Each structure stands twice: as C-alpha cells, then as structure tokens.
Amino acid sequence: MKTLLEGYERFRNSYWQEHKDRYSSLARDGQRPPAMVIACADSRVAPEMIFDCAPGEIFVVRNVSALVPPYAPDDKQHGTSAALEFAVNELNVRSIVVLGHSRCGGIQALMKGPGSGTHDFVDSWMEIAKTARQRVCDAPNAAETDFAAQCEACEHEAVRVSLSNLLTFPWIQERVMDGRLTLAGLHFNVETGHLQMV
C-alpha cells in the first residue's frame, strides 16, 4: 500500500498538474472515447501505456486473458459483457480492440489443462477459449511444437475466438455490418515491445 500511495503523490505532483485541465474537462463534459480495448489483467500489459493514450481516449476493460464471452443474457453477472454494452450503446465507441499478449498465464493454464490447485473461477472462465486450445492441439505439427510455441499460438487463437464472440452480440454485429464499428485483434510481445495484428 505504501508504494501505491507514494505513486499517487508522484502522480498528483507531476502528471495531474500537467493535465488537470483535461481532467476538469472530462469531469465536466463526460467521456467520449473513440475506442474500447479489451485487455488482460496482467500487470505487464497496460493499454494506456502501450497506446500512449491520455485520460478519456480509450475505454478499457481488463480480465484474465482478454477474453470475450459469447452473448448470453441471463440473470448472472457479466462484467465484460456489461462493459461492452455500455461502451457500444452508451459511449458509441467506433472501434473495439482485443489485445492479447505473450507469456499469458491464463493461456498457459488453458494449455496445461485443469490443474490440481483450487480454482473457483479461472478454469471455467478459460473455457471461453477452449476452441483456441483445440485449434492449436489439432494443428498438423502440434506434436513437434514445444510448449512455449503452443502457448504463443494459443494466445493468437484466443484473440480470434474473442473477435468471433463479439459478433454474437446483436448490437455489435449490427454496427459492424453498417460500418459504425470496427473490430481488431492485436498481440503485444512483453519482451520485445512489438505489437502485431492477429
């Protein structure tokens, strides 16, 4: 906690001072970000830093492995789906980016299969990407590919699964079809800093 509060003091004394007019404008006029980024909760992958964005420029939702579940309205809690609904229907974002990354712990857990530890939520959450794992395991050269390469391939496939799942939301599909909304998949390499389209 001490480290966080010290960081806040640095923020308040430097970044806030330089950008307080922008914060005042955002507080007064509200947010109108043109883009939404769905990213992993991994501490090494901060979308605002990767895309060098100022406050108010991107609407971000982060979860384990940057996954988008399929459209499934019911009485359960759906954090990512609720964020999508707000960003698309209320904020009218014009693009949605799914941002996968290298060395993703969630993807590694998915590729290893259910572990011996107690996971009340992670295993069922990662089921969203089970078709990504299957594609990697069914690839012609899967038996000769090492685990790290399989995980990297699965990171890319998981982004593709999330992009497909986005189109199961009727109000997203409608906006994509009429050109009001674009979807993109990206993969960030934590070690090299490289960003590539998926």
Search tags:
single chain, 198 residues, Beta-carbonic Anhydrase, Chain A, 2 domains, five-stranded mixed β-sheet, 5 strands, carbonate dehydratase activity, Carbonic_anhydrase_sf, zinc ion binding
Beta content: 5-15%
Taking pLDDT < 50 over at least 5 consecutive residues as the criterion, the unreliable ranges are none
Number of domains: 2
Number of helices: 9
Q: Summarize the helix and strand pattern as letters.
A: HHEHEHEHHHHHEE
Distance between the termini: 37 Å
Class of secondary structure makeup: alpha/beta
The total of beta strands comes to 5
Q: The CATH topology of the largest domain, please?
A: Beta-carbonic Anhydrase, Chain A
Shape: globular
CATH class of the largest domain: Alpha Beta
In spatial order, strands of the major sheet run 2-1-3-4-5
Q: Bin the helical content.
A: 40-55%
Biggest sheet features: 5 strands, mixed
Question: What's the gyration radius in Å?
Answer: 18 Å
Which architecture of the largest domain per CATH? 3-Layer(aba) Sandwich
**Which homologous superfamily in CATH is the superfamily of the largest domain?**
Carbonic anhydrase
